[in-house]
Write a structure and sequence with these properties.
With about 350 residues, the protein is an alpha+beta fold. The chain contains 7 helices and 18 strands. It has 2 domains: about 160 residues, Aminotransferase class 4, branched-chain amino acid transferase, N-terminal domain (D-amino Acid Aminotransferase, Chain A, domain 1); about 170 residues, D-amino Acid Aminotransferase, subunit A, domain 2 (D-amino Acid Aminotransferase, Chain A, domain 2), CATH 3.20.10.10. Strands 1, 2, 3, 4, 5, 6, 7, 8 and 18 form a 9-stranded mixed β-sheet that branches. A hairpin with a 2-residue loop joins strand 16 and strand 17. Pyridoxal-5'-phosphate binds next to helix 5.
């Protein structure tokens, strides 16, 4: 299928602002295509960033049939643009689509569409240290029908916008509040799909936790309220010296590409890794005794986000004196090194965008 590209005239294009807040500025163009049962995917185009018109009865507005992805384009110091494991995002997009009874998108076509979009808006890939172009592929159910059922029409789009360096004040740890009463996802539910409802359901707790002065929520499993799952939009790892553990994928955890990259990369840096069921009481005891030497969250936004403090049932537990540790730092340097083209890409994770 071909993409109809309708670019703005060069004089109409905006300049990427020097300073920006994450998710509030968008590049000049967007990709969009539509799906219906008879024609499949059709009308693929890249056009100026603009509003989408929806019927007020569109299924996404009532029943939340929606999925998304989050990924980034990185500018190397030679000026090239790198994507990081984009086909893994598109495979996950299709797994989310299947779970939400939405049509799949051909992964290679999705990649071609993204490359065309980034190429056209290449001036929006910032070159300040640690910054990137954030990419948000999304699919929504647009069928105009209130009857509860899978929609018969969908819109898939990709929007992009600049993202600044995540750690403006240096590589500093975050504080995390362990959710005690509320749950994010249950095995058999939709926790492993990147679908809007998971995030809507987490907002109440995020607000509560922010009021208490913590920056992130750590979720426990919904059945026992005992096993560690993940942070709002990051997976979690605990470090015992040279050994890194992360919760195994239970069915209610989002399978992060950063998580997977760490599991593959860490052994090449001399660390051992394990995916296990992690009991919150054991983890807290190991933090208290000092067996746990570091903890960090991992996801596309921050790559690695050191965790310096956990609060559970009103008690605070400090990790590594609330300082970022060496393992977190090494993994961060190695992974961002690959993304920005400073380190050798031994795993073939980088896909270049020709501009
Ligand atoms: C997106 C996301 C992650 C991280 O996934 P990456 O592919 O590493 O960016 C982790 N947990 C949740 C709930 C997420 O939505």
């Amino acid at each position: 299928m071909s993409i109809d590209i309708k670019p703005l005239a060069p004089a109409e294009r905006k300049a990427c602002p020097e300073t920006f807040n994450f998710g509030e500025n968008f590049a000049d163009h967007m990709f969009i295509q539509a799906h219906d049962r008879v024609n499949g995917w059709k009308n693929a185009e890249i056009k100026p960033y603009q509003s989408i018109s929806l019927d007020p009865s569109a299924a996404v507005l009532h029943y939340g049939q929606e999925i998304f992805e989050g990924m980034k384009a990185y500018r190397t110091k030679e000026g090239q643009i790198n994507l990081f494991r984009p086909l893994d995002n598109f495979k996950r997009f299709n797994r989310s689509a299947t779970r939400m009874v939405m049509p799949e998108v051909d992964e290679n076509f999705h990649l071609d569409a993204l490359k065309e979009l980034v190429k056209l808006d290449n001036k929006w890939v910032p070159n300040q240290d640690g910054s990137s172009l954030y990419i948000r592929p999304t699919m929504i159910a647009t069928g105009a029908k209130l009857g509860l059922g899978a929609s018969d029409q969908y819109t898939h789009f990709i929007i992009t916008g600049p993202a600044g360096a995540y750690f403006k004040d240096g590589f500093s740890p975050v504080s995390v509040y362990v959710a005690d009463e509320y749950r994010r996802a249950v095995v058999g539910g939709v926790g492993e799909a990147k679908t809007g409802g998971n995030y809507a359901a987490s907002l109440y707790m995020s607000e509560e936790v922010a009021k208490k002065g913590y920056s992130q929520v750590l979720w426990l499993d919904a059945i026992h309220g005992k096993y560690i799952e993940e942070v709002g939009a990051m997976n979690i790892c605990f470090v015992y010296g040279d050994h890194i553990v992360t919760p195994k994928l239970s069915g209610s955890i989002l399978p992060g590409i950063t998580r997977d990259s760490i599991l593959k990369l860490a052994p090449t840096l001399g660390y051992t890794v394990a995916e296990e069921q992690l009991d919150i009481d054991v983890i807290l005891a190991d933090i208290k005794s000092g067996k746990i030497t570091e903890a960090f969250g991992c996801g596309t936004a921050a790559v690695i986000s050191p965790v310096g403090q956990l609060c559970f049932k009103g008690e605070d537990y400090f990790i590594n004196d609330n300082k970022a540790g060496e393992v977190s730092r090494n993994l961060y340097d190695e992974l961002t090194g690959i993304q920005y083209g400073r380190r050798e890409d031994k795993f073939g994770w980088i896909v270049k965008v020709d501009c």
